[in-house]
Amino acid sequence: MRYSRYFLPTLKELPAEAEIASHKLMLRAGMIRKLGSGIYSYLPLGLRAIRKVETIIREEMNRAGAQEVLLPMVQPAELWQESGRWEKYGKELLRFKDRHNRDFCLGPTHEEVITDLVRREVRSYRDLPLNLYQIQTKFRDEIRPRFGLMRGREFIMKDAYSFDADERGAEKSYWQMYEAYSRIFTRCGLDFRAVEADTGTIGGSFSHEFMVLADVGEDTIVFCQDCDFAANIEKAEVKSSIMPSKESPKPREEVHTPGKHTVEEVTGFLGVSASRLVKTIIYLADGKPIAALVRGDHEINEVKLSHLLGCNELELAPEEVVKQQTGAEVGFAGPVGLQIPIVADLALKGMVNFITGANKTDYHYVNVNLSDFKVSQFADIRCITPQDPCPRCGGKLVFKKGIEVGHIFKLGTKYSQSLKATYLDAQGKERYIIMGCYGIGVGRTVAAAIEQNHDKNGIVFPYPIAPFQIYLLPVDVKNNLIAETAERLYKSLGTKWEVLYDDRDERPGVKFKDADLIGIPIRITLGKHLKENRVELKIRKTSEVILADLNELNEKIENIVKEIGG
Question: Is 428 helix (H, G, I), strand (E, B) or coil?
Fold first, then answer.
C-alpha cells in the first residue's frame, strides 16, 4: 500500500479526550475516530489490525470444531422475556420499539438468539455436540464509556455457543474452548493469564476470564508463584486459618468516640490496629436489610456476598435505612442488638475482645465477643489480600492489574430450560441441552496489545497482528536511485510480505516519526547507504538497526521475522 494513497490521518498532538496509552495512540496513529460517546469509526489501519485478530480467531475456532454463523443484531423482546433477562439485564440493554410498537433491543450478547435457533433445528442426540460462533457488532449502553475501544458502547465481539447432550460433553467443549483461547492470545503476542471468574449477568456455574496484564487494567487478578492458581479478585477464595485467641473474653464497654466514623479515625482514637475492629455494613439484598461483618483491615467482596445470599440485587443500604435499623448515624453501626440477619466473615471466628459500633451516634463498643450477638452464617465474604496464602497450595500470591479480553462460561441448562431447548436421547426421552458460551472482545484485544506494546515514540505492534509487516521508507523520493530502488523493492517484497510504502514527498524526520508512531515491526530505510547497495533494517521492538546488502535482504527479513514471533 502506498502511503500517499492510504487514508492514514496521523496526529501530532495528544488528544485531550484520551486518558490511556492505547486510546491516545490509536487516535494519533489514525486507527480510529470518535463518532459519539463510546462509539468509534474504524479507519483502514485500525481495521487491518482488527482483521488480523479475527483471522487468528477464525483459524483457532475452526480448528476446535466450531462453525461460523452470523446472527441478527436486532433482537425481539419476546426472547429476552422468555429467558427472564428483559427486566434483569439493566439499562445497558438498549431497548426500542419498531413502527408496529413492538419491543426490540440491540444485542449486547446472543444467548437467547442462538438458543432459539438451535431449539428449532436440533431434535436428537445425534445432532449434538454443536458449537456455533460469530464475529459481530454488539451494543451495551455503558453508563461511563471510556478508554476508547477498551470500554466502548458499540464494539466487535466474537461469541461462540456450545450445545451438548450431557455434562461430560459440556466439560469437553468448555476445555476445548479454553485451549483455543489460550492459543488465540498466545498467537496475538499477548502476555495474559486465564483466571477463575464470576459469571456476572451471563449466568452459569463456572467461568474463566482471559486477562492481559497491564497497569491500566480495570480488574485485579491474583495468581500463585508456586502453583497454577489464578483468579479475578472478585472470585478468589480466601484460605482462612482460624487460630483460637489466647485472650480471655472481657466485659463489653461503651466508649465515647465523638465524630469518629471511619476505621482509621476510630482505631487512631483508641490506639489499636485495624485488625482489632469489626466493620458492620448494612446492605439491601433484593430490598431486604442484612448486616455483613468483616475485620477493619479487610474489605467485603460484594460478589461473594451476593452469591452467598442468592440475591439478584445487592446494594449498600441508604442512610435512612441504616438509621432505621441501628438507631444511629452512619459510621456507628454494630452487630449487638441488631434485629436483621447477620453474615460474618470467617476471619471473625477466632476473634475476642474486638471493637464495633454501638448503634449509638458517637459511641463504639470495646471488648465485644461473638457471644454478644447472633451470627446467621459464617462464610468467606471478603477480598483476598497480599498477606493471604494461596488457597490451593499456601504459596505466595502475586497481584496484577488486567484487561479482560476473553471470557468463557459453563451455562448448564440456564437458557435451554427457560427457552425449552431440548433433544431426544437414545431412549427417546426428552432432555435439556447443556450449553456453554465463549466471548472475545476483538477491538479490545488490539487495544490491550497496544497497552502492552508501546514506548514514548508510539505503538510497537506484535508481528502477528500488525496492520503491515514492513514499513518501506525512502528518505528522498526525488533522488532517482532511491526512488527507483524503492519502487522495485515495493513490488518484490509485496509478493511475500504486507508493505506500507511511504512514497510521500516529506522530510525524513516526519516519515521517521510516523513510522515509529504506527509501530510496524520492520522498517527498511533507503538512504545514504544505498550507494553501497545497502539499506537499513530497523526492528521496532528492540530499536536494533542492521545494515543489509540488497542481495541478502529477503534472508535478513526472514531471520528477523523468526526472532520477533512471525
Answer: coil
Strands 377-379 and 342-345: parallel
The percent of residues in the chain predicted with pLDDT above 90, rounded, is 91
CATH class belonging to 468-563? alpha beta
Which fold would CATH assign to domain 52-223+400-450? Answer: BirA Bifunctional Protein; domain 2 (3.30.930)
Nearest to 377, CA basis, from 287, 312, 285: 285
Domain ranges of the chain: 52-223+400-450, 253-379, 468-563
What's the pLDDT score for residue 197? 84
**Contact at 8 Å (CB) between 124 and 423?**
yes
Closest CA to 56 of 442, 470, 405: 442
- 356: Cβ contacts below 8 Å, ≥ 6 apart: 277, 278, 280, 334, 335, 336, 364, 365, 368
With CA atoms as reference, report the closest residue to 331 among 245, 231, 257: 257
pLDDT tens per residue across span 1-34: 999 999 999 999 988 889 999 999 999 999 999 9
Q: Sheet holding 363-368: strands in order across?
A: 253-256, 363-368, 354-357
Cell representation of residue 149: 475501544
The vertex-520 CA angle with 212 and 498, nearest 5°, equals: 115
SS3 of 539, please? strand
Copy the grid coordinates of residue 160. 461462540
Q: Give pTM, 2 decimals.
A: 0.88
- Strand 470-474 relative to strand 522-526, pairing: parallel
Edge to edge, the sheet with strand 342-345 lists 314-316, 278-285, 288-295, 342-345, 377-379
CB 140 within 8 A of CB 191: no
Phi, psi of 255, deg, nearest 5: -125, 145
d(CA 87, CA 85) in angstroms, rounded, equals: 5
Residue 298 pLDDT greater than 70, yes or no: yes
Q: List 536's β-bridge partners, or say none.
A: 525, 547
Q: With residue 75 as reference, give the H or E element that holds it.
A: strand 74-76
The pLDDT-based confidence of 410 (bands split at 50, 70, 90) is very high
CATH fold of 253-379 reads YbaK protein (3.90.960)
